[in-house]
Amino acid sequence: MRILPVDLNKDFNEAILEACRVLRASGTMIYPTDTAYSLGANACDSVAVEKIFQIKNRHHSKPLPVLVRNLDWAKALAYITPRQEKYLASIWPGPVTVILPRREHLSALTTANGMTVGLRVASYPFLDKLLAKLGYPLTATSAKLFGEEESNDINKVVTALETSNRPFGSSARLTTSQTQGRQPNLVIDAGILPKSLPATILDLTSEEPKILRVGPTSPELLRKLLGMK
Fold it and tell me: What positions does the domain YrdC-like occupy (predicted)?
């Protein structure tokens, strides 16, 4: 596991290049977002996505949220109606994950063999440049241990990785060699991020939109944009 410090207010091209190198080799990484630190891999690479499940000891029945660069990328991965496209253009980029009917391009592991996918366009220059350089969508599951909240403090995340003998998302005990095998290849260390709630989750797969989780975006604003009561 390589830890790469980066100042997001300065030139972070080295971090972008290293992240792309790791991700193109079916690797995994922890990276900063506009809400918290996330655990990522190329969402179209089944080998890489399987590593995410192993690191978190996550059940394969649970799909992974996916970061895309823009609405065009989202349209390539999900079926989006003209009305939904207009709505998404009003909330993206931003901290809202939207569940939509999926197309076939993603790894089946990413969507847990389901017919939907959760997509988000982050309001974050680092991720915009990373996705532009990488050319693939990125898994965006939280980098947290079992029973803990999402963390904006990379020191806590790294300390847990280095000292814990259990994988992300599990209370099971592991040997040192097993734990090392479950660590990401790269950590993009951007320090302590601004505090934020986890992203809002909005389901647009049925005729009636549903807010599944309230996050930083006002529910009232979402309802108004959707024409919901």
Answer: 13-217
pLDDT for res 168: 52
* Per-residue pLDDT tens digits for 26-52: 999 999 999 999 999 999 999 999 999
Helix (H/G/I), strand (E/B), else coil: 158: helix
Residue 59, helix vs strand vs coil: coil
Residue 146 and residue 57: Cα distance in Å, rounded?
10
Tell me which amino acid residue 199 is: A
Give the CA distances from residue 100 to residues 160, 164, 216, in Å, rounded to whole numbers and listed in that order. 34, 36, 20
Beta strands 138-139 and 141-142 are unpaired
Residue whose pair of structure tokens reads 């992300």 in the numeric block: 168
pLDDT digits (tens, 9 = 90+) for 113-169: 999 999 999 999 999 999 999 999 999 999 975 556 678 999 988 887 776 555 455
CA 76/CA 83 separation, integer angstroms: 16
- Report CA 150 to chain centroid distance, whole Å: 12
Burial tier of 2 (Cβ tally within 10 Å: 0-12, 13-18, 19+) = exposed
> What whole-number distance in Å separates Cα of residue 35 and Cα of residue 38?
9
| Packed helices 13-24 and 125-134: angle between N→C axes, nearest 10 degrees | 50
What pLDDT is recorded for position 163?
65
Q: Hey, what domains does the chain have and what are their CATH numbers?
A: 2-226 (3.90.870.10)
